[in-house]
## 1
Amino acid sequence: MVQQYSSALLERAVDEFAKLPGIGRKTAMRLVLHSLRLEVGAVDRFCDAISTLRHEVKYCKVCHNISDTDVCQLCADPRRDATTVCVVENIQDVMAIEATMQYHGLYHVLGGVISPMDGVGPSDLEIDSLVKRVDSGDVNEIILALSSTMEGDTTNFFIYRKLMNYPKVKITVLARGLSINDELQYTDEVTLGRSLVNRVPFTGK
Amino acid sequence: MVQQYSSALLERAVDEFAKLPGIGRKTAMRLVLHSLRLEVGAVDRFCDAISTLRHEVKYCKVCHNISDTDVCQLCADPRRDATTVCVVENIQDVMAIEATMQYHGLYHVLGGVISPMDGVGPSDLEIDSLVKRVDSGDVNEIILALSSTMEGDTTNFFIYRKLMNYPKVKITVLARGLSINDELQYTDEVTLGRSLVNRVPFTGK
């Protein structure tokens, strides 16, 4: 049974909100009615922020992170170690790693992982530009920080094959193991097995 | 630890999405990144729909439902029974009742219920205009279809007091009882008690 809207404008706004991922028609309706209770200025600011971003978005020409300038502030920062490049799927991953405050090198945002099921091949990703960065000779280490999935592993392997002709460049991956606070008995056996194989000397830290 | 955004435009768009009710910063980020993958035209349509609705929204001057015209299509429909008025909190309730296809009268949208805790008093609601509709003499029945909460009951009682001087007007409330498919043993005792007190003759339907 199709719900009948008393206003075509209302229906159109609900339709548009409901196109967003994870937002159904009931939530869309709630958001639209919320927007009707806001001042006109607040709604204008909302629309302007979304629209301006979409129209004026730029990506750093070095690492392909979102940026307001041609080269992002991370790549432009002289205090960062330009010889280490961390390869990630998307910009959320950059933010997650930055939030750890444990990494001081640069990034390379692939824009996804190789996934034949979703029609994503190597040419859809920023892999050629990564090889070019390595080819320029400034890079000593590539950290592969992709998801621990079949697609992530495939992409890791693809990149590894592309970079194995640069013997100067060390290729590393993130450590896999127990999460901090994980209880042994509830950890899946693959992770537990990896954490055993990759055990490290106890330093008391 | 504050997440660092590599783009001020991105941060502003995330800020705006995160102001919406029920949307946190992670979901806001996901929605913004989704909008970046859309064509520019699709984002423009989204913004235009929200903005146009907010700028051009009208409310029916009879029942206060959202409408594109001065009088909404329900109030303007000559086939509907104008002597019966169903009083509801908001426009979602109108749509819910319309979806049952069991009601052929008109509506009156209060815009909320009396709730001193939220600073909502009778003058914030469309109660005076309801009394005026009744005073015009065309109404035979007022159906109070508010939520079964303390605030809903308070509002029911307030409206009842305002309308008790119109003896011609019958004031009814929605039936309370078991939901269709409810199992007796899992029904709360107040609802079960009400369904016993308000039992109706068995008609085989």
Note: Chain B touches chain A through 63 residues (CB under 8 Å).
## 2
Amino acid sequence: MKSDLDRLMKSRNLDAILVTGPAQHNPPMVYLTGGAHLTAGDLVKTVGEDAVLFFYSMERDEAANTGLKTKNLDDYKLHELLEQTGGDHLQATVLRYQRMLSDLGLTKGRIALSGKSDAGSAHAIFSGLEKALPDIEIVGELSDSILLQAMATKDEGEIERMRQMGRITTQVVGKVADFLTFHQAKNGILVNKDGAPLRVRDVKSKINLWLAERGAENPEGTIFAIGRDAGIPHSSGNPNDTLRTGETIVFDIFPCEAGGGYFFDFTRTWCLGYAPDEVQMVYEDVLDVYGKIMGELQPDTPCRMYQESACDLFEEKGHPTTKSNPQTEVGYVHGLGHGLGLHVHERPWFGRTATEEDRLSPGVVVTIEPGLYYPDRGLGIRLEDTVWVRPDRKMEVLAEYPLDLVLPIKES
Amino acid sequence: MKSDLDRLMKSRNLDAILVTGPAQHNPPMVYLTGGAHLTAGDLVKTVGEDAVLFFYSMERDEAANTGLKTKNLDDYKLHELLEQTGGDHLQATVLRYQRMLSDLGLTKGRIALSGKSDAGSAHAIFSGLEKALPDIEIVGELSDSILLQAMATKDEGEIERMRQMGRITTQVVGKVADFLTFHQAKNGILVNKDGAPLRVRDVKSKINLWLAERGAENPEGTIFAIGRDAGIPHSSGNPNDTLRTGETIVFDIFPCEAGGGYFFDFTRTWCLGYAPDEVQMVYEDVLDVYGKIMGELQPDTPCRMYQESACDLFEEKGHPTTKSNPQTEVGYVHGLGHGLGLHVHERPWFGRTATEEDRLSPGVVVTIEPGLYYPDRGLGIRLEDTVWVRPDRKMEVLAEYPLDLVLPIKES
């Protein structure tokens, strides 16, 4: 949680955190500013002190609305620094950072860097800064960053926002189910009143519309993949595909609050009209593993344990998994879940990058999403729900929705 | 244009371009892949060769659909590299990059880096790579990057997509105008049928809905700012504000194609019901400068020239500008425009970072957006259109829309 930051900074021997970039669709900046219409800026938090937000003058109202301590970047007079450096934009930017840090008393120490930025610019600027200030170490922490660690456990306010996103998400999933079952099938293909086939793109545009109606955004798109495509976990689905009865549809939806706030993440697998025996059997294997894992979840246990457990359960049923072959492309091919919050994927991790610290600590929100993939047999199945480990150590699914495989369809 | 890349790489003495990050909402990656549902990946283009896209196995179909040469990142066996480095994620990632580059024959030379990424991770990984491969120089180019230079001039296909975004944008602006004029004012405040005041948030949610209906996204939000807020260029508007007659509304809308494709950018200023004399006078000054600048635009001329010209024109009319005071917060306080494409703001630049190379070269698409801001007088005015410098050297406004200030409103 945010209130853990000072403690975490001390334990990592960090003197400051520097976050850069816009305050929308940029999780570390959204986390520390509360989200604001800032197209660019920097935020610096030193140990034991409140964060200071550096903003551009044109966005002074938006910056003030965050309620943070603020400083105006235009007061650092980039135009003068550019003159001083003969128009060298990189050197002028480095000089400006030097002065910003110095104004906060930061002339030495370890500074953790994060925020969404152009990789090349970030590398150039912060390498330049390290050269200019040899007593400063810029720390990049990858999947183990201090902010990801703080973000992993959510407070009540964050849970309420995620719960609301869960409501919106399952409402839209329900609308998609109604929309599909409202259509009839002709020769095994869903058609509209004019007899023209319904296509994946039609469903996706409805999804975006229904999300927008509810104030949500869908920046990363939706997976709505049928048949063979359902057998490739991250195949988003061919927009031109028709909707054929008896084939699996993996429907994975992961919208966020407008402006790049909290995400939800949810998957169901549907078969229109009926499920062939082969599909039904694979579905039941996934459902069984889903149920067993959900029943096993215990607070404070390491996430890796459940990844192992899911692999073992699938192997027992005769499916290949990443445990027996880390590069398998059939069977159970991905991680069991991931943390969820301002990123679709965040800590705690379940897969290869998981450490002993990735645990079901009270406060975390994780997805549980077992699946089986057989693209050559034209099928894929995934079921995903989002679980909050409550402070009272109980597990709570943040948005309930039936797990049914078959959506009834009339044949015309 | 993309076809200039090899020439530009040679002129900058670059051996390769390395782009990292997702293929949605990440302009360099969208530019070079054509956009795809890839949550992560890397793309490397060496001089004279086609680009190679490194993808994760789960996204192999999406990668294949780009039509690019591809390599599977899972073949580099991160799990083995993690074992080799004792679980050090950073070192394992550096090793993987080392092998990826080596597979493309890159063991020395200058590599330009770009792509949206976590600043800290990028800095750590590419500093690590430079240490591991001392003959490789990772080049970060800030606002002068080779990709921004290539992107500045658009081909016919790109223009068609931007023109379509212009159509969608002006359709939605028209719908907002209709929506507002459909309401009546009561005691100078727009109200709905029940007599409850209409608020900025109601307008913004309609905008998102109408954009979604048309297949567009609005990841950076909309500026719809009334009264004093209109006087702060990037104030996005208070969601709770009522819509008061006789006050200026700056309505700046900048949606993009779904998935983070081409943007449009468009501003009108409206006064509901009537315009007080003071507002009318300031509006006419902006309109006059807008008309003069639009009439002056000539192909191949430097953008800075028009920024100068706009300052001179405003100063002649008695308004402070950034020319007389670079930090002014009243009068004409920002750049005249900017390039537009996969970024809302890209080259050519008009403001402080503009160089001799930022010109109205045939193929560029720029916004022209003069404005005047007097927050303490409760007003701001901006007019913005998007201009394409055509290959036949004519200027074309990509989406036409009336410039009128006053929206007629009935007083009930």
Note: Chain B touches chain A through 79 residues (CB under 8 Å).
